[in-house]
Structures are given as C-alpha cells and as structure tokens.
Amino acid sequence: MEEQKKTLAKRIIQYFFQGVIVIAPIAVTIYFVFWLFTAVDSILPNIFGSVVPGEEGVHHIPGVGILMMVIIMILIGWASSSFVISHFIDLLGAALEKTPGVKLIYSSVKDFLKAFSGSKKKFDKPVLVNVDSSDVWRMGFITQNDASQFDLVEHVVVYVPFSYAISGMTYFVPKVNIRMVNETISSAEAMKFVISGGVTEMDKAE
C-alpha cells in the first residue's frame, strides 16, 4: 500500500512537470505576443492624445494602431527611395553619428538591424569555430571575412551567441580554425540551435 502511494505521488509529480513543459512555452509566447501587440498598438493613440489634449472621447479600436504603424513604415520606406528624402535621411544620420552620446545608440541600433536584414546581412554564415581546444567547437557566425585592419592576417571575425541570452562573444579566429556548417542548415536554424542550448531539432534548408 505504501509503495502504491509512492508510485502515485511520483506519477502526479511527473504529470505536473510534463504539464509545465507543455504549457510554459505556449503561455510565454502568448504573453509576449500580447504584450508586444498592446505596446505597439498603443503608441500612436498615446501620441495622438498628447498632441491633441482633451480627446478622451476618442475610442481606441484594437489593431488600428498597428495597422497605422505598418502603413506609416511602408510610406517611410517608399519615401526614402526618392533622392531628396534619402539625401535628407543621410544628412540626419550623419548628424546623429557625430553627436556625442547619441552616436553610440544610433550606430549600434543601425548596424544591429542591418545585420539581420537588407543587403548587408551579417548573421548569414553559420560556422563551427575552434577557440577552446582542438576537439571543442562552438557554433557562430562570420561577421567579417577579413580582420587585417587589426593586423590579424588570415583571420576572420566570428560572433558566437550565448544560449538562452541575447548576448554573445566576438572572436578573431584564424581561418584554419573555421569549419563551414553544412549548407543544408539555414542561418536561422543554426541561430535557433545555439539559443536553445542545442536541444532544438534543426530543419534542413529548402
């Protein structure tokens, strides 16, 4: 009888943790999406309320803020393709890059976003890099194919992200210590593999 109670208790505990494993990722994802949706959706109404005071009677329709934000971003992208607007944006960017304090924030955010999109994507070359010992490898991404500006000939710059974090480490590595990842593995799958601590299954690129 005592043994049956222990077995039942173990099974209940097992079911509890199994339930946590099932529901936690779903709950966190839903919470994050809801938080992001609410935060972005409230940006424009809050701006409108601060610019036009006394408009408490204006009803906020969920989703309209995000729709307006998407439309504004599309219009800005379209306008920035013209010569006059693009020249103005370049002048504004140059001014921000020369402003003490602001320069660090502006250039860091700009380069970070460009690293993930556009023609200057950086995290698109997943590699295995040897920086610890001869038989230990880390997964990273080549961000610069040439490190000669640092007087390191035959070296490349590799960014190695940390698991379950948004930080990482930058290494200057000899090219002989680099192994290209199988081309059937996409950079997105490689990043997901690293961030998850190697527990996720990697799908082959189409």
TrEMBL record:
Family matches, as PANTHER family: COV-LIKE PROTEIN 1, PROTEIN LIKE COV 2
InterPro entries: COV1-like
One Pfam family here: DUF502
Species assigned in the record: Arachidicoccus ginsenosidivorans
Ranges that cross the membrane: 12-37, 57-79
Classification lineage: Bacteria, Pseudomonadati, Bacteroidota, Chitinophagia, Chitinophagales
Keywords: Membrane, Transmembrane, Transmembrane helix
Record-given protein name: DUF502 domain-containing protein
Entry annotated with the keyword Transmembrane: yes
